[in-house]
Amino acid sequence: MKLLVLSLCLSSLFLVNALAQKPVKVVEVGQDHFEAGFPSGGQLRMHIRSGAVRIMGSDEKKIQVHYSGKNADQRKDVKVSLKTSGDVGELNVSGGPRNGFEIEVEVPKSCNLYLRIPAGEVEVAGITGDKDVELSFGDLTVEVGKAEDYAHVDASVYSGDLDAEPFAISKGGLFRSFQKQGSGKYRLHAHVGAGELVLKQAS
Fold first, then answer.
1. What is the structure's pLDDT at 188?
2. pLDDT band with cut points at 50, 70 and 90 for residue 87
3. Closest CA to 184 of 144, 143, 147, 133
4. How many angstroms separate the CA atoms of 82 and 38, rounded?
5. Strand 112-125 relative to strand 51-58: parallel, antiparallel, unpaired?
6. Which positions ≥6 away from 94 have C-beta within 8 Å?
7. Which of 50, 71, 184, 199 is the Cys-Cys partner for 150 at CB 3.0 to 4.6 Å?
8. How far apart, in Å, are the Cα atoms of 38 and each of 30, 115, 128?
9. 3-class SS at 147?
């Protein structure tokens, strides 16, 4: 009898864990604000449309998307899609006016971030964790904190300027890059196709 009860308890536990890991997808179109819970320390992949984009670390355990700029009210076709499974999430933001439209995304400040944006003026700040960020065209600024926080750093610009003061690097021209190994625990990958890449300490 005890074995039967133990078996039923284990089966229930496995079922609860399986349900907890079941992927959840939330899609919103044309809303003035997006908000969804997301755990601290998670893995977050983001694909965001071109434009002025700011990614900010927050003390809250949630993802929030805000809009601003002179055309912020023209958001009827802005689509935000978030798919989560446990502590892994994938956020996609698309649509909206081409100009006069700014996007700010707040995420838990402790997370591992993967970010891809085709073009624009992009800033990443206040995030502690791995960072894998690429911008095809435009200006990218990443707040990296202290150089000693990282185990591996690689940064590159095909055409433009590369300024990484925390790592004592400043280069301009074609095919500029650098790599560094360290004693920290985080990894940083930052790349700009054509434009400017700035890695800076927290202000």
1. 98
2. very high
3. 147
4. 10
5. parallel
6. 49, 78, 79
7. 184
8. 22, 17, 15
9. helix
Could you tell me the sign of the dihedral formed by the alpha carbons of 141, 145, 146, 148, in that order? negative
**DSSP single-letter state for residue 70:** T
Q: Quick one: which H or E segment has residue 186?
A: strand 186-200
The pLDDT of residue 19 is 45
pLDDT beyond 70 at 3 = no
Rounded CA separation 139/192 (Å): 8
Q: pLDDT (tens digit, 9 = 90+) per residue, 21-45?
A: 689 999 999 999 999 999 999 999 9
* pLDDT above 70 for 18: no
Q: What backbone phi and psi angles, to 5 degrees, belong to 95?
A: 80, -175
Tokens of 121: 């003026």
- Distance between CA atoms of residues 9 and 22, nearest Å: 20
| Per-residue H/E/C for 17-33 | HHHHCCCEEEEEECCCC
Q: Which residues contact 137 (CB under 8 A, 6 or more apart)?
A: 118, 119, 120, 192, 193, 194, 195
Distances, alpha carbon 28 to alpha carbons 34, 44, 65, 82, 146, in Å: 8, 18, 11, 9, 37
* Pairing mode of beta strands 62-68, 34-37: antiparallel
Q: What percent of the chain has pLDDT over 90?
A: 84
188 within 8 A of 130, measured Cβ to Cβ: yes
Q: Dig out the tokens for 125 from the structure.
A: 């700040």
Q: What angle do CA 169, 179, 114 make, to 5 degrees?
A: 105
